[in-house]
Design goal:
It contains seven helices and eleven strands. It is an alpha/beta fold. Strands 1, 2, 3, 4, 6, 7, 8, 9 and 10 form a nine-stranded mixed beta sheet that branches. The protein has a two-stranded antiparallel ribbon with strand order 5-11. Helix 3 (about 85-95) packs across helix 6 (about 200-210) and helix 5 (about 180-190) crosses helix 6 (about 200-210). It has helices spanning about 35-45, 60-70, 85-95, 115-120, 180-190, 200-210, 230-245; strands at about 5-10, 50-55, 75-80, 100-105, 110, 125-130, 140-145, 150-155, 170-175, 220, 225. It has a single domain, classed as Alpha-Beta Complex (Spore Coat Polysaccharide Biosynthesis Protein SpsA, Chain A), CATH 3.90.550.10.
Length: about 250
């Protein structure tokens, strides 16, 4: 299967739970090493064969527009409703720039290169899972099917709310085909209205799409990764994840 050449990074969030650590800048510009986490993510995407990157901006958008101005392969699109919308609305804002399959991820992720390699070597669609992280605020994924790869069925932060034992934890990096994106977009457009743009691309749109078509969920049990939503996540990534990624 050919590697996809486009990636979409969702970077519109305000990061209110981590504001003390990133006051005056978006979360993606936190630094654990010499470069910001979003710059390191872009470098990993390039290594994985991605040639075009779209960043959906919101909070402190100027950081990303300046970054894009200095990188010919990076474009931005702005979610003007970033304070009152969910992640699927941010993705929807980028719809006119998405004309092919793409990798989808968020700006506050720290991860090893293997995450992208697994997705680029797989099929047209994939929702990447890991083993238990103990990070807090995990999203658990339920799959179904008898093949070597389970197919997406449900997601929840409450493992007990799922109909079966979780297959793994949602990493937040997915490979999305044009067909899958169409299902996600159609669902979102049915749900959006003036008083509700709070639709998530994961638990809402992806789960809905997974009921319409098979979406494989590869599991990398020992994957090194972390999402930085609050100070405890930041401490975990800084102390237990990032040092091992940079040494690998």
């Amino acid at each position: 299967m050919a590697a996809v050449k486009l990636a979409v990074i969702l970077a519109a969030g305000m990061g209110t739970r981590l504001r003390a650590s990133h006051s005056g800048m978006p979360k993606g510009f936190l630094k654990l090493g010499e470069k910001s986490i979003v710059e390191e993510s872009v470098e990993r995407l390039r290594l994985a064969g991605v040639e075009q990157i779209v960043i959906v901006t919101g909070y402190y958008a100027d950081f990303y527009t300046e970054f894009a101005a200095a990188n010919a392969d990076v474009n931005t699109v702005h979610n003007e409703q970033f304070a009152d919308s969910g992640s699927m609305y941010s993705l929807w804002c980028a719809r006119d720039l998405i004309d092919q399959g793409f990798l989808l991820l968020e700006s506050d992720l720290v991860y090893e290169q293997r995450a992208l390699d697994v997705l680029q070597a797989g099929g047209d669609n994939a929702v990447l899972l890991s083993g238990p992280t103990g990070a807090g605020d995990e999203v658990y994924v339920e799959t179904e099917g008898d093949g070597p790869l389970g197919m997406l069925y449900n997601m929840s932060k409450d493992a007990d709310a799922l109909g079966a034992d979780p297959a793994g934890e949602l990493v937040g990096i997915s490979r999305i085909s044009p067909e899958l994106f169409r299902y996600m977009r159609d669902y979102a457009e049915m749900e959006f209205h003036a008083d509700n743009l709070h639709v998530s691309y994961e638990e809402d749109a992806l789960v809905h799409a997974g009921r319409q078509m098979p979406v494989p969920c590869p599991v990398v049990a020992d994957l090194l990764w972390g999402e930085i939503d609050d100070s405890s996540h930041l401490d975990r990534v800084r102390n237990s994840v990032y040092p091992h990624i940079t040494m690998s």
